[in-house]
What does this fold into?
Amino acid sequence: MKTDNLIITGARIITPLGFKARKGKEMNELYDDVGTIEITEGKITYVGADRPSLPDGYKVIHAKGKVVLPGFVDSHTHLVFGGFRPDEFIWRLNGDTYMSILQRGGGILSTVKATQETSAKLLRNKAEWFINTMSRMGVTTVEGKSGYGLDRDTELKQLEVMQAINFDPIRKVDIVTTFLGAHAVPTAYKGREEEYIDFLIKEMLPLVKRRMLAENCDVFCEDGVFTVEQSRRLLKAAQEMGFGAKIHADEIVSFGGAELAGELHALSADHLLHASDAGIHALADNNVVATLLPLTAFTLHEPYARGREMIDSGCAVALATDLNPGSCCSGSIPLTFALACIYMHLTVAEAITALTLNGAAAVNRADTIGSIEVGKYGDVVLLDAETPNVLPYYTGMNTVALTVKRGRIVSRRR
Ligand code: NIG
Ligand code: FE
It folds into this structure.
């Protein structure tokens, strides 16, 4: 990837510290000091007090009075898909439910049809439109899932689109890819869910592994989709093949997904709107990142996940957008931040940790991104503000002035 040499001076540097997720009270502790960040060939080589002179060969940004944060990591998205579902959104406003639309063959299954019919080129153009928008909001790494194919070729097509973006040397974000073949039961397998899980384990996972198309495996573990037992079987097999495990857990009803994530020592359990007390403790005890997606609760008009209680119980919480064409067609980092503070009662410091280091941990990247520390990649964000409190205060509005990816300015506010 193309990298650059960059120095940012006089900035208020605010970052969590460390190379793994921060849990419980640690989420509120941030490094916060005025000084210089030096990025050499894309990696951070100095963080500390301003120095009397600057070395040659670096672009310099004077950032007096501005906040610099680590680049945001959006650790849960479904950003490659065909079509859109605005009509469904209106049906829900009129009282229809997310699950009844899916059970009628709409919802995820209608995006599956559209994705099967859309060319890789068009899928890529659409995904890149989202990526450009997210980059302007400070995102430097995004997780992307398959799951809108549910057949061999279309699942591969989605993953290949993400891989192609990752091969672009001037990309604005890195995509961490997740295989979500178990996103819904395909129509052809209705009533034969076990056979579909067999197909995923025997054919798809080995193929995806061989072609190095995904690092993680995810499942929609939900009443009416995949059972806890089916999810366990799939994820155990995936872990044995070297995939990280992620779970769409307890999104619509309390179903035991968080408990399963704890049992499997998954990388993350995501959504958790209806996670039980036992589930929350299982996440804390087993170092599973609790990935909360407040935009989805907002757009589905559902109660928010118990973020405050999760942190107070010792969990590592991450925040992500869940960008997808159905339950949440938004990749808004500013709104995610504000909802987390207003409705889940996270502090600004906790929300920063959740969108940076803990997001990185949720995609198994905490060793290389997620904080501003020597040795990590030079992925940072400059806010057009003196205080990070603007992040929830400018509700839903973008306060990012510059986004830097490996030392290169990739987005700039005009
Ligand atoms: O995270 N719940 C499952 N998957 C997505 C929604 C996908 C869709 O509706 O297209 C979610 O909410
Ligand atoms: Fe999702």
